[in-house]
Amino acid sequence: MTFGDVTDRLPDDALTAVRNTIVVTSVVGIVMGIIALVWPGVTMLVIAVLFAISLFFIGAFRLYLAFAGKELPGGWRVVHGVLGAVILIAGIIALVRPGQSLAMLAVFIGVGWIFSGFGDIFAATDTPYAPKWLMVVSGIVSVIAGIVMIAFSWVALATLVWVSAIMLIVISIVNLFTLPKKPAAPAV
To answer: Where are the transmembrane segments (predicted)?
Structure first.
């Protein structure tokens, strides 16, 4: 089933709504991509603040689990409470010092890529889904990217913002060229 098959079955009002949604989100995507390209520093600051806010809410949720999770064993409640307090404090610090939170975010991303890379390398021996050499190469690239992200965090994050902004603009433009056909005009 293709996108065309689906759009042929939609009522005219729904098809118009889909088209309008694609146009609006594409225009917003293009504008956001341009803003990120023109003001990468401000974009990184917004990312830092959003990261801090997410840490704050994750910490608060963990604390909630520690106090409200009556079905959880006592040890898990303590773990949730301690993690919640640490993450909540990290979120507050990150909100007060967003520049440092970007460095922390870069370390998180880098460590995640390193673990993912080693996971790919070790999984290459018994995966039926991809050639072993491809999994190993993918893992090595991921480990290297993680090390670069940690070692050169500001350059790596700025590059990530630029690449993401360009991808957002390109994908948004492509979406505009793949709009479903307009509903047929009613016969008079």
So the answer is: 21-39, 45-65, 77-96, 102-121, 133-154, 160-179
